[in-house]
């Protein structure tokens, strides 16, 4: 008889993940809430109580051979009110806790850093737009949607970036997920990055 040997499968231990994965669900919830909170209800239609006219009955109730009507501002008439139309009273706001917003922001910054979209510079101080343009070209950011994060509100620096298309400036304490997600590149100093971590890492 020929003996058959069955090879046992080697058990491989799962190694712990060293790289922190990007929490897309968390970032998605915060981004959607910010978009909803910035949304403005513009579309608005008038109902039959808001359109002008219609105080008098068009014709008498009986004897004309026509259908009975009480007002020319009925939704059945041209120029009358709109039934179930969009109204500007609708509220689109969503509430997200502060800790969740902070955690999502730090997640995005870490992802930007891993993808080399977070650019660290020595200083961000300019007096003229030409200097700011040369600075962006030097860091390969000119033409991209870029967010320049300032530690303090420097008026001259803000004015130098203001006329450059696709470039926005923001103070470190005012950072939010939507602005960081929209930008292709984030420019800040290392001191500013440490300050952002100190501000938004609070429990």
Which terms would index this structure?
33% helix, Ribosomal Protein L4, Chain: A, 203 residues, elongated, four-stranded parallel beta sheet, alpha/beta
Shape estimate: elongated
Helix content: 25-40%
CA-to-CA gap between the ends? 71 Å
Secondary structure tally, helices: 6
Beta-strand portion reads: 5-15%
Q: How many strands, what sense, and barrel or not for the largest sheet?
A: 4 strands, parallel
The neighbouring-strand order within the major sheet is: 1-4-2-3
**Over the alpha carbons, how many angstroms does the gyration radius reach?**
30 Å
Second CATH tier, the architecture of the domain at 98-200: 3-Layer(aba) Sandwich
CATH topology of the domain at 98-200: Ribosomal Protein L4, Chain: A
Structural class of the secondary structure composition? alpha/beta
Low-confidence segments, given as residue ranges, are 1-18
Rounded mean pLDDT is 86
Total number of strands: 4
What string gives the helices and strands in order?
HHEHEHEHEH
The CATH superfamily of the domain at 98-200 is known as Ribosomal protein L4/L1
CATH class of the domain at 98-200: Alpha Beta
Structure description:
A four-stranded parallel beta sheet has the order 1-4-2-3. The chain contains six helices and four strands. The N terminus is likely disordered. By secondary structure, the protein is an alpha/beta fold. The longest helix is centred in the middle third of the chain and has 17 residues. The relative contact order is 0.14.
Quick take:
The protein is an alpha/beta fold and 203 residues long. It contains six helices and four strands. The chain has a domain at 98-200: Ribosomal protein L4/L1 (Ribosomal Protein L4, Chain: A), CATH 3.40.1370.10.
């Amino acid at each position: 008889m020929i003996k058959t040997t069955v090879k046992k499968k080697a058990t491989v231990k799962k190694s712990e993940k060293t790289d922190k994965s990007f929490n897309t669900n968390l970032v998605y919830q915060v981004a959607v809430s910010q978009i909803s909170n910035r949304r403005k209800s513009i579309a608005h239609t008038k109902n039959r109580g808001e359109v002008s006219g219609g105080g008098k009955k068009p014709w008498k109730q009986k004897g004309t051979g026509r259908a009975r009507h009480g007002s020319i501002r009925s939704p059945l008439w041209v120029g009358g009110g709109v039934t179930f139309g969009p109204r500007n009273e609708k509220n689109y706001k969503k509430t997200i806790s502060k800790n969740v917003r902070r955690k999502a922001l730090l997640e995005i910054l870490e992802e930007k850093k891993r993808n080399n979209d977070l650019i660290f510079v020595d200083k961000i101080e300019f007096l003229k737009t030409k200097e700011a343009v040369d600075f962006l070209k030097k860091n390969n950011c000119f033409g991209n949607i870029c967010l320049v994060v300032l530690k303090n509100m420097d008026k001259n620096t803000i004015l130098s970036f203001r006329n450059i298309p696709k470039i926005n400036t923001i103070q470190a304490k005012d950072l939010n997920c939507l602005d960081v997600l929209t930008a292709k590149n984030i420019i800040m100093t290392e001191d500013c990055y440490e300050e952002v971590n100190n501000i938004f890492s609070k429990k």
